[in-house]
C-alpha cells in the first residue's frame, strides 16, 4: 500500500505557482520523499526527491516539514504542459529494494 | 538523449494468444522494472531485475506471466495465455544500480479481446 496521501485533484492558473501537498505521517527516518508525474498517455517522469532538506532543481522545489510528516511540491510558474497526475512516493534509499509504490496521485489541471 | 524503448507500442490480440512485450533499458542501467497500469488498479509493480537477476516478482501472476532478461540490453514480459483482464498499459523502467531515479519507457498498450 502507498504510504502517502494526496488530494485527488487540483487546479492552477497558467503562470501561477502550483503547490501540491502530500502527507506521509508514517515515514521512517531513512525514507526519502520522491515525486513523479505522468502526463497523459506517457510513462511516469521523475521530478525531484529529498530526505529532510528542501530541494530545488530545474523542474520544481520540494519543501519538507521539519517533522517530515508532510511535504509540498512547488511548480513555480505552471504551464499548460504541466497538466498531469503527480505522485508522491516514499522510498528507502540504499536498501535492497528499489520499489516505487504508486498511490492515486493528484491530478493537476493547469488552465489558461 | 538516452531513453527506455518498448515494443510494440500497441498490441491487440485475442484471448488465449501469447503476448511478448520487449524493453530496451538505458545503456548502463542495471535495474529494470515492469509495471502495469489500469484505471481500476493504477500503477502496479509486477517485477524487477538487478544485473539481469530477478529480485522481486511478487506482483506478477505466476501462472501466466513470465519476465526475463536474456541480456543486459533486453527485458521481456510474456503472457501466455492472455486473458481480457490483462488489458492494460505495461511500462518498463530502468535505473542505475541502487539509483534513486527510474526512467520509464512509453509503455505498451495491450488489448485482449
Alpha-carbon distance between the termini of chain A? 36 Å
Give the biggest beta sheet of chain B: 7 strands, mixed
What is the overall number of helices of chain A?
Answer: 0
Mean pLDDT of chain B: 93
Lateral arrangement of strands in the main beta sheet of chain A: 1-9-8-3-4
Pick out the low-confidence regions of chain A: none
Uncertain segments of chain B: none
Please outline the major beta sheet of chain A: 5 strands, mixed
User: Which protein chains are joined by the largest interface, and how many residues does each one contribute?
Assistant: A-B, 22 and 24 residues
Overview of this protein structure:
The complex is a heterodimer of chains A (112) and B (113). Chain A is an all-beta fold. Chain A has strands spanning 9-13, 18-23, 31-38, 45-50, 55-56, 61-64, 70-75, 84-92, 106-111. The mean pLDDT of chain A is 91. With 113 residues, chain B is mainly beta. In chain B, 0% of the residues lie in helices and 55% in strands. Chain B is built from no helices and 11 strands. In chain B, strands 2, 4, 5, 6, 9, 10 and 11 form a 7-stranded mixed beta sheet that branches. Chain B has a 4-stranded antiparallel beta sheet with strand order 1-3-8-7, with no helix packed on it. The chains are: A mainly beta (112), B mainly beta (113). Chains A and B meet through strand 4 of A and strand 5, strand 9 and strand 10 of B.
Amino acid at each position: 500500500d502507498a504510504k502517502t496521501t494526496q488530494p485527488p485533484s487540483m487546479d492552477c492558473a497558467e503562470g501561477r505557482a502550483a503547490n501540491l501537498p502530500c502527507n506521509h505521517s508514517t515515514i521512517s527516518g531513512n525514507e526519502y520523499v520522491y515525486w513523479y508525474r505522468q502526463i497523459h498517455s506517457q510513462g511516469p517522469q521523475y521530478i525531484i526527491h529529498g530526505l529532510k532538506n528542501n530541494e530545488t532543481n530545474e523542474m520544481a522545489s520540494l519543501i519538507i516539514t521539519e517533522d517530515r510528516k508532510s511535504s509540498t511540491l512547488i511548480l513555480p510558474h505552471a504551464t499548460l504542459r504541466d497538466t498531469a497526475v503527480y505522485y508522491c512516493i516514499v522510498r528507502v534509499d540504499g536498501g535492497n529494494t528499489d520499489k516505487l509504490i504508486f498511490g492515486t496521485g493528484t491530478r493537476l489541471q493547469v488552465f489558461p | 538523449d538516452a531513453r527506455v524503448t518498448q515494443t510494440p507500442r500497441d498490441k491487440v490480440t485475442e484471448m488465449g494468444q501469447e503476448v511478448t512485450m520487449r524493453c530496451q533499458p538505458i545503456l548502463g542501467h542495471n535495474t529494470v522494472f515492469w509495471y502495469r497500469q489500469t484505471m481500476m488498479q493504477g500503477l502496479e509493480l509486477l517485477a524487477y531485475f538487478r544485473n539481469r537477476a530477478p529480485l522481486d516478482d511478487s506482483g506478477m501472476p505466476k501462472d501466466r506471466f513470465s519476465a526475463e532478461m536474456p541480456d543486459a540490453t533486453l527485458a521481456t514480459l510474456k503472457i501466455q495465455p492472455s486473458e481480457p483482464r490483462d488489458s492494460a498499459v505495461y511500462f518498463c523502467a530502468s535505473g542505475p544500480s541502487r539509483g534513486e531515479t527510474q526512467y520509464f519507457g512509453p509503455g505498451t498498450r495491450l488489448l485482449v479481446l
